[in-house]
Design a protein that fits this description.
Number of helices of chain B: 7
Distance between the termini of chain A: 58 Å
Number of domains of chain A: 3
CATH topology of the largest domain in chain A: Beta-Lactamase
CATH class of the largest domain in chain B: Alpha Beta
Radius of gyration of chain B: 22 Å
Largest sheet of chain B: 10 strands, mixed
Oligomer: heterodimer
Distance between the termini of chain B: 51 Å
Radius of gyration of chain A: 60 Å
Strand content of chain B: 35-45%
Number of strands of chain A: 16
Structural class of chain B: alpha+beta
Largest interface: A-B, 10 and 13 residues
Order of helices and strands of chain A: HHHEEEEHEEEEEHHHEHHEEHEEHHEE
CATH architecture of the largest domain in chain B: 3-Layer(aba) Sandwich
CATH topology of the largest domain in chain B: D-Maltodextrin-Binding Protein, domain 2
Order of helices and strands of chain B: HEEEEEEEEEEEEHEHEHEEHEEHHE
Helix content of chain A: 40-55%
CATH class of the largest domain in chain A: Alpha Beta
Number of helices of chain A: 12
Shape of chain A: rod-shaped
Helix content of chain B: 10-25%
CATH superfamily of the largest domain in chain A: PAS domain
Strand order of the largest sheet of chain A: 6-5-9-8-7
CATH architecture of the largest domain in chain A: 2-Layer Sandwich
Chain lengths: 539, 346
């Protein structure tokens, strides 16, 4: 994760995912909250109505029982019971039907049931009331009746209230409009509770209902939460799909952006590294975004400045070398003069003293003066050659012929394997063959002097788009970058004996041919000279 | 149980008298006798049929109809061969009922209003010689009197008389059906259709309530209540014919519109019914329950009041107790109850 590219990809992925995840979270929360609010309002209305309806029904039952308990026929049938109670049973059944109750019963004051009429089996929980049967102002019996709070009853309530209903007594369901009603935990009064029955999710709210005679039940209203859940699930699925697509897009865009950003940066980094290593010749060619383009221009300007400063420095050094050369020439010229002067003084003294060994002294003096004059002459010839370097005479020149000529010249080195010339080299340029030969001889000579016994000097040539490239490489110890920078300065030499003018002459020849010469480090070790000659040299 | 046993006790007879009556039909052992006597025979009274001092047959009064017809069951002799029935003398001998050990009588309680009046207070006092009974245990809903056996009475008054007061007529009926009462006395119109239609009770009788009547505030009779559609409907529909029409002697006023006294608790029901029969006349006659002063005792009505209906209180008992009630005189039981009518004015 240290690379800029990785960070850019990660960053774009996060930019794509985090807002989406946040939006989905907030949206899901909002949907859930809205669903709960709607369910709560619906339950409030339904349960409020349900509570009122149940209370009204309880009051209605009580009222019916109060009226019925005063019924003359009931009192007579209960208190007289001529027919052994069967007529009372029939009467209760008739009244039960007419009053719309599920059961009616008459008990005596001790609670013993005297007659009863019931619709179906006895329900677990009933919404019942009772009224006294008064006889002479005193309670002579009790009329009980009511409705069975069974599933059918709840179904009727469900149709009017629009919510499912569960009835629980002592935490156990006793009737319900839905199958499988083992609810846990028990919904608290006024609290919205979410739970699942089977594979159906519900929101619920409840209220306690006092049925009298110590019977308390809890009425639970249920609203299915499936629609909201489906919405949330659809939202989450959509979010997941969008997230994956967004992630892929973000990674792709991040990768592309990282390429646009990191590639120039990498190029710049390589370029900066080259600059740091003093390789200022190759220009920086980079097309990128505006900000980087500014950086590219700055770096390129810096490279140009550095190169110009280096050239100026080289020129300065060259001037200094020339000065040094002049002083050296003077010194070299002055050095033979001293033995010459001494020899002449010895000769004069010997002649004036008429010394017997005058002939010997003369001979010695003549020999010494002759040797020193020869040395002076040789020295002056070299300087003269450098100073009066002739203008090149251009003519079509085939590099193959040139290499074959050099092979003849260095036949012994070639046979020893110390020099290898590319036999397949070919290519024609317009050049001065003699000067070009001189330049290559100087380079071969340098190389041969640099290599040891196992070393080798290699010459190769190849066509390039606009001319010919000749490469001369050796496997010698090589040069440092600083040495390579001063390589073409006159008088610069790495050897113990040498004038330091050979490579200066090579550079002069190449320059006069409109070409360039670069000294590089060879791929393995040693030094490689790359000479580029244009196909046609401008006059 | 005691009452049941009393049924089979052979009655003693006394006061043999010739009645103003005529045999009108003989059918096997039943002899039908038209009564023209002011003192009609009672059930189980012995009847002796004679012709020229010859006893033809003897029998017992099986039943009477409005004091005008008696059905006699021949128990000895025969009337089958008698041709000239009009010449047969009819002699009645009143059966002498033994006093019952206990007689339980149900009465309306003070708070039990009827259509005609509501009571501020109810007094229960039997028209018997002083000291005939002494008060026994009394509760809110019952009073007990214990007869002094040393004081002889002309009628077979029970040894112990228990009066129970019922705030609800139905409770009183139920008490009767449950056998908690021997006799139940109701205000006019109170007796339920159930009781009236049950064969067991439909032979109920009446006792005249003498402490008031339903009258019209008019100088002359508004009409014959026995023929006036409004008044007959009133009696039929609201009082189950428990009111007895008073024969009018004054000339009728002609078509009138009745207005019921607001003091009557049931004035609204009564007015609604009477309005159905109201004529277009502007002559208005006010109907009111008129309390009769107990001290007058002569039956005189206040001026400007024309009595239309006498109140008959239904008295229900088991059939076998009917002769005993006859012997006691039903009206004595009814009139023991004196209601101090709650006053209300328009």
């Amino acid at each position: 994760m240290k690379s800029l590219r990785s960070r850019l990809i990660l960053g774009s992925a996060l930019i794509a995912l985090v807002p989406l995840a946040l939006a989905i979270f907030l949206l899901s929360y909002r949907v859930e909250s809205t669903m709960k609010t709607e369910a709560s309002e619906r339950l409030d209305v339904a349960l409020g109505g349900l509570q009122s309806e149940l209370q009204a029904q309880m009051e209605e039952i009580a009222q019916k029982l109060r009226i019925l308990s005063r019924d003359v026929a009931l009192k007579r049938l209960y208190l007289v019971r001529d027919g052994g109670g069967q007529e009372l049973d029939r009467f209760l059944e008739e009244k039960r039907f007419l009053l719309g109750l599920d059961f009616l019963a008459v008990t005596d004051t001790a609670g013993v049931e005297v007659a009863t009429a019931e619709l179906g089996p006895q329900a677990t929980v009933t919404m019942a009331g009772e009224a006294p049967i008064l006889y002479q102002g005193e309670r002579a019996g009790i009329l009980r009746g009511g409705l069975a709070l069974d599933s059918m009853f709840l179904q009727r309530l469900k149709q009017t209230r629009g919510v499912d209903i569960v009835l629980r007594q002592n935490e156990h369901p006793v009737a319900s409009t839905v199958a499988g009603t083992e609810l846990s935990p028990s919904p608290g009064a006024g609290l919205m509770t979410r739970f699942t029955i089977g594979d159906q999710s519900y929101l619920s709210r409840s209220f306690p209902l006092d049925l009298g005679r110590g019977t308390r039940v809890r009425v639970i209203g249920l609203v299915p939460a499936a629609a909201g859940d489906r919405t949330v699930r659809a939202l989450q699925l959509t979010a997941a799909i969008l997230g994956v697509l967004g992630l892929i897009l973000a990674v792709l865009l991040g990768w592309m952006w990282s390429l646009q950003v990191s590639r120039p940066v990498e190029t710049l980094a390589v370029f900066a590294d080259r600059l740091s290593r003093g390789e200022w010749d190759e220009p920086l060619t980079l097309k990128s975004v505006g900000e980087l383009q500014t950086l590219v221009h700055s770096l390129e300007r810096m490279r140009g400045d550095l190169r110009r400063y280096r050239d100026q420095l080289v020129i300065g050094e060259r001037h200094a070398a020339w000065s040094q050369m002049a002083r050296q020439v003077a010194h070299e010229v002055k050095n033979p003069l001293t033995p010459i002067a001494i020899s002449i003084a010895d000769l004069k003294r010997s002649f004036e003293q008429q010394r017997p060994d005058f002939p010997v002294v003369l001979d010695q003096a003549v020999r010494t003066v002759g040797e020193e004059v020869h040395a002076l002459k040789r020295l002056l010839d070299e300087f003269s050659e450098l100073g009066r370097f002739p203008a090149p005479v251009f003519a079509p020149c085939d590099v193959g012929d040139l290499f074959r000529d050099l092979a003849t010249l260095y036949s012994s080195e070639v046979s020893e394997g110390r020099l290898m010339l590319d036999a397949a080299a070919s290519g024609a340029v317009v050049a001065d063959p003699a000067q070009l030969r001189q330049a290559l001889v100087n380079l071969i000579k340098n190389g041969l002097e640099a290599i040891d016994g196992d070393g080798r000097v290699t010459l190769a040539a190849r066509r390039v788009d606009d001319g010919l490239e000749i490469i001369v490489a050796d496997t010698g110890p090589g040069l440092s970058a600083e040495q390579r920078a001063h390589l073409f300065v006159p008088g610069f030499t790495t050897k113990a004996s040498g004038s330091g003018l050979g490579l200066t002459i090579v550079e002069r020849i190449v320059h006069d041919h409109g070409g360039t010469i670069v000294a590089e480090a060879a791929p393995e070790h040693g030094t490689l000279f790359r000479i580029h000659l244009p196909r046609k040299t401008r006059s | 149980m005691l009452a049941g046993i009393g049924l089979f006790v052979a009655p003693a007879f006394a006061d043999l008298r010739r009645a103003t009556a005529e045999v009108i039909l003989v059918c096997e052992r039943n002899v039908y006798v038209a009564l023209r006597d002011s003192l009609p025979p009672l059930r189980n009274d012995r009847v002796i049929f004679r012709r020229r001092k010859e006893t033809l047959a003897t029998g017992l009064v099986n039943s009477t109809l409005n004091g005008e017809l008696a059905v006699v069951l021949v128990i000895s002799g025969s009337m089958a061969k008698v041709r000239k029935l009009a010449k047969v003398e009819v002699w009645f001998e009143r059966s002498q009922m033994p006093p019952r050990p206990v007689l339980r009588v149900g009465y309306p309680a003070t708070s039990r209003a009827n259509l005609l009046f509501a009571c501020d207070n109810l007094d229960l006092a039997f028209a018997l010689p002083s000291g005939a009974y002494r008060a026994g245990p009394t509760t809110v809903r019952s009073s007990t009197w214990i007869r002094d056996p040393a004081l002889p009475l002309s009628r077979p008054w029970p040894d112990t008389l228990i009066a129970r007061f019922f705030e609800d007529a139905t409770d009183e009926e139920i008490a009767l059906e449950r056998g908690e009462l021997d006799v139940a006395i109701f205000w006019p119109g109170e007796l339920s259709r159930h009781m009236r239609e049950q064969s067991r009770w439909q032979t109920h009788s009446f006792g005249m309530y003498e402490w008031g009547f339903l009258g019209a505030e008019a100088d002359s009779s508004p009409g014959d209540p026995a023929t006036d559609p409004a008044l007959t409907a009133l009696n039929r529909e609201l009082f189950a014919d428990d009111l007895r029409y008073v024969i009018q002697t004054k000339a009728p006023l002609g078509p009138v519109r009745y207005e019921v006294d607001l003091a009557c608790p049931g004035w609204r029901q009564m007015q609604r019914l009477l309005d159905r029969y109201a004529s277009t006349t502007t002559r208005r006659v006010r109907l009111a329950f008129v309390e009769r002063d107990s001290t007058s005792g002569n039956g005189a009505e206040p001026d400007g009041i024309v009595p239309l209906f006498i109140l008959r209180c239904p008295m229900v008992c088991r059939e076998e107790l009917e002769p005993y009630l006859d012997a006691l005189d039903r009206s004595t039981l009814v009139n023991a109850l004196k209601c101090q009518v709650r006053k209300r004015t328009r």
